[in-house]
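User: Fold this; tokens only.

Assistant: Input:
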Amino acid sequence: MVEKFKTILNSIETERGNVAIFALLRMDEFVDKWTVVISAPWATDENRHEVFEMIRKKIVDTLTSAEASEIARIAIFPIDEHLIQELLQFKSDTVVENKKINGNDIHSAYIIKSETPALV
């Protein structure tokens, strides 16, 4: 599924521009599903719904229905959000397991892309 999310990321960046963080996090103890986390300079409060719908559509179009059912939420954060700042400490293509990040217990995570804001 990670490879399919790399394809989704490439499509997003082709259409909209660079992304600072694109990651899959499994952190909910009660719902064993993934959260898609994205932060990009062009994803703002003003267009959050549009960005959400774009990502949702790409997920539905790219993943099988079984894979898509593994996604619990799409989280769009500004670059200055504490969680994003902590995720930026990890390099792209990093797997994180059983780590506390921003007060959240991350059971597993795939940091698909991590690029410091100065480079975005």
